């Protein structure tokens, strides 16, 4: 079992209670959110699919992120996270989709977009998609990725409880 068993179980139960499936769209985590969920037996009743879209081409082809968005804002941006989440929702049977795109490091950061910056997108059927960012500073690559998984699961759970 992963270290995310408790939050993942809560997300699965919340989706089950609402009668909806979940999809993930992951860049910097490379499928870790989907793995945390599918580590749990019975998750197939809730998890529809996971998109691992590490490259810009994958974001465009699999999720419908526009080339214009990527050119204007970059892969690690509010706009891209929103389009990733919306694309995952539209291209699945899910009622909720979570997306993550960030800079896990140790390289690739800039003054504008430092290592540890992650944008999260969440699309819930019948609602406007939302996005938020976090900077996980002082963490190595594994730490940024683990914190991203935990935050994404918390974001889904929080949204399902309040929406």
Automatic annotation (TrEMBL):
InterPro entries: CinA-like_C, CinA_C. Residues 7-159 form the CinA C-terminal domain. It comes from the Bacteria. Pfam families: CinA. Gene3D superfamilies: CinA-like. NCBIfam families: PncC_domain. This is CinA family protein. It comes from Nitratireductor kimnyeongensis.
